[in-house]
Amino acid sequence: MKRLIALFLVTASIAGLAACNTIAGAGEDVSAGGHAVTNSAEKAK
C-alpha cells in the first residue's frame, strides 16, 4: 500500500511540474499578444 501511495505522489508531482511549465508558456504567449496590441495602438496614434 505504501508503494502505491508513493507511486501516486511521484506521478502527481511530475504531472504538476509539467502543467506549471505549460501554464508558464501560455502566460508568455498572452503577454506577447498584449505587447503586439499595445505596439499597434501606439503606432496608430
Automatic annotation (TrEMBL):
<keyword id="KW-0472">Membrane</keyword>
<dbReference type="GO" id="GO:0009636">
    <property type="term" value="P:response to toxic substance"/>
</dbReference>
<dbReference type="GO" id="GO:0016020">
    <property type="term" value="C:membrane"/>
</dbReference>
<comment type="similarity">
    <text>Belongs to the EcnA/EcnB lipoprotein family.</text>
</comment>
<dbReference type="Pfam" id="PF08085">
    <property type="entry name" value="Entericidin"/>
</dbReference>
<keyword id="KW-1003">Cell membrane</keyword>
<protein>
    <submittedName>
        <fullName>Entericidin A/B family lipoprotein</fullName>
    </submittedName>
</protein>
<keyword id="KW-0449">Lipoprotein</keyword>
<keyword id="KW-0732">Signal</keyword>
<feature type="signal peptide">
    <location>
        <begin position="1"/>
        <end position="18"/>
    </location>
</feature>
<keyword id="KW-0564">Palmitate</keyword>
<dbReference type="InterPro" id="IPR012556">
    <property type="entry name" value="Entericidin"/>
</dbReference>
